[in-house]
């Protein structure tokens, strides 16, 4: 038998330490134990070793055995040898002397140390014994450290140093700075414009920390997660402290003056961030792992979770920075009410023109990052709402510029550039289209088409293509396209040409129901179209139809009549048409898809998931959203067949019928119900009674009741009259 001497296990220093702590000799004292720990703990490199040492120390019989040492000896375990004041005094004096010895070379070196002391301040105050006795001392200590930091920062940034030293100083400032403080005291004569550009470059520049997302390309499996978490991504200083760096930038932008040379800084910063966002969206599209929405999958790998955690940090970081940029415009530095009133018209016009350009860039950035928002949500982060709505208000204020038309056209063109097959796969293309649907909707609501005819027509054309695309299998994108079209039809003028468009659009709805549209969505769309047409009827001469109302109702009626009874449909969840907006002004839920409300694990998606916002102008007349069957005590409230779906959609128009044709169309709808099969009849009669009894004004209600009880004689044949169930 051969003996390999190389396999002999040689005891290490750690083994001797653990053995001494667990089985100390008779001569070992408390001082010896503390000395061992003092000499070894600063050099621990592995978490497991630290656990072993601490566990051995806590089981040490000398310090924690059955025979408790004297108080004087054991007190050393909980109290440093030096008094607290002496300990902090030594630190303060050494730092001050170190800077005074060579300010140019040593100033930047103390910045991270003072920043660390500042971060520990709250914990120090909580654990400090005799707080009242030591309060004055630590107040003076904190004040001296603050003064030393300000002095060292200004000196360190005044001399030419390497980019690494500058970045270290700026990160230290971000950790030290508090929002209640004034930035001016830190900068003194330093130019804040230089600081802003360096910070933006530190985060989003070509070599910035946020570029670390490209590392995910080389990480193929969860086996690489240790490397990912410990060193390469989340321990990178500019990523680890991304939130504090963003808050510092927010304050810098807020306090930036409105001089012309300052606008260049804002535009340069926006351009750098926009290039980063474009590259990021292209990266997500080019990698299959990250180009599909993980929220739709119950099995999301740790690698994907970490990627989306980083994406969420980037989104929130940019939102914080945009807040500062827009706040600069909304609340100019040093401009109170009186100063704002004294601004000349030229100054106000110049500021508005400047910020239209800035807001266009912000919208482009949000468009590129929309895939993050719709994946992980915003989790109640109200900053997104602020920048989104303020940007739109600034852009739409007064008039639409040619630059806006060109920029928005480019955004719409880029988002619709991908072939349909790709759009059904690539998450960034889908979400960019959703975002442009949102912008198109706002253009339709906010602008007169006569002023932006080309852009207006482009919005409608592109959205109609999306809504009618049969190869597109993204319900959210189809839904957003329909929302824009409904917004257009709600805002259009009632003309013969526009009525042709309405009828063409209804044909599209009929073709997509029930494969791509639910019965509830069909009802909302038909109600929206009918309400618009009936508010301002067009009278015809020498035509088969008397008016535009008559033509529209007959068009829907014929579709109901030609639909064969008994064709089943998939009874999907009721989802009203959403306008793809981040959240409405009064609703703070996140905009992640609501198609899947349960998940087996808690992760970044579940923590931020919430219902998508409802477009308040497009709610169903039957109380907005349908109640589940269980809430109606077993009474069915959703159509089960195609015929039921079309007739219920026609019933939604009843509250808007003119009184002159009210009874006539009630009778025609009744004939459709009678021509249906028995199961459909029972459901449709209940829905018709619900419409007549709950959704009519007093005049129509009186006419409807007379028709129901006198013409139909519903009471005699015992139809309808289901008890109304109220929710308290």
TrEMBL record:
Lineage top rank: taxon: Eukaryota
Family annotation (PANTHER family)? MICROBODY (PEROXISOME) BIOGENESIS PROTEIN PEROXIN 8 (EUROFUNG)
What protein is this chain from?
Uncharacterized protein
Species of origin reads Metschnikowia pulcherrima
